[in-house]
């Protein structure tokens, strides 16, 4: 995501770009193809609400900047009840076609395993940085790579879901159209079924870490069994929360827990189990997930998995222009910088591409306004975060500077007005920043 966006932005500013990609010659655990922009976990870019949601605001800012990733996502969007979900394979093919057909972009398929001393480089190697490059980064920075494990949710064939048990509904019927309001398949559990599911989850065979590996999980992408280990009710208050849903098969009975599945392709033939990233072994996954009412006869197009994510301690290593302090000819972008999520990764690619191109053209960019979504993120990773406890971060309004003299109430009661004020302020600042580059 980040490398694709960086190349697109720089090329559109008139700079000749060489885009290096090690796939498909060098494969990763999670990728299936050599396409750019391949989505390996969820197929969702999360909320598209640009007035009340920080990630929706990031969508808006990227669209104003001519983002390849966001524009292509909207071209291949699927009903998702207010979220921006996409048909993942056509999305990746379209991103690839756009990059390969751009006059200012040359594609080079090989692994880069060193940090060059000359030239202008952006490393956007994402969560699956190759071992050799990881060692080169470690040698240059003099610090151990920080790592966590990211788990992939399983995908189910829609035809194998029992719709006599499950039903179609977005939480709180969210969405503008009936299709949006019925974007999710819901599988209900009563208390006994939930307790049995938790027991099986805790007892299931899990993937073990290799000797000498250490990891911390990112809380936004915890394996479900790790959540269950934190308390038997954790899942019921997380991805399995039953609120905002009414079972039309039994409207008088409130479900104790609900498993949601979200459409994964435009045909509606594939659904991914929302929030069900897992490190269970394949045989255990099949047995445990078939305990979910409605999935007792499920067939899986893909089972879950687990892979290592790597990221820099960016507050100590990168400057405000996202350059490596020890090698200023190199920028980093994307998830390797310590942002989390497709959108945040692509947004950091957008900034890195523009910053690098502007430097090459002799017209360095003005500092990104901190009160924008992009500015809040880049400020966080390049100095706003506490280096000793630095962990991957999604964009959120907690990264934004407080509103001054707004008169808006604090706490939950003033949240709607406060979020709208945040987004209004950000849009004005972002628009002015972009206009300054025209």
Automatic annotation (TrEMBL):
The organism of origin for this protein: Tropicibacter naphthalenivorans
Gene symbol of the encoding locus: trmFO
Cofactor: FAD
Residue ranges annotated for the MnmG N-terminal domain, each copy included: 2-363
Name of the featured protein: Methylenetetrahydrofolate--tRNA-(uracil-5-)-methyltransferase TrmFO
A Gene Ontology biological process term: tRNA methylation
Family matches, as SUPFAM superfamilies: FAD/NAD(P)-binding domain (SSF51905)
Primary site of residence: cytoplasm
Organism domain of life: Bacteria
Homology family: Belongs to the MnmG family. TrmFO subfamily.
Keywords: Cytoplasm, FAD, Flavoprotein, Methyltransferase, NAD, NADP, Transferase, tRNA processing
Source organism phylogeny: Bacteria, Pseudomonadati, Pseudomonadota, Alphaproteobacteria, Rhodobacterales
Location(s) in or outside the cell: Cytoplasm
GO function term, MF aspect, one: tRNA (uracil(54)-C5)-methyltransferase activity, 5,10-methylenetetrahydrofolate-dependent
GO cellular component, one term: cytosol
Reactions it catalyzes: uridine(54) in tRNA + (6R)-5,10-methylene-5,6,7,8-tetrahydrofolate + NADPH + H(+) = 5-methyluridine(54) in tRNA + (6S)-5,6,7,8-tetrahydrofolate + NADP(+); uridine(54) in tRNA + (6R)-5,10-methylene-5,6,7,8-tetrahydrofolate + NADH + H(+) = 5-methyluridine(54) in tRNA + (6S)-5,6,7,8-tetrahydrofolate + NAD(+)
Record EC number: 2.1.1.74
Function: NAD-binding protein involved in the addition of a carboxymethylaminomethyl (cmnm) group at the wobble position (U34) of certain tRNAs, forming tRNA-cmnm(5)s(2)U34.
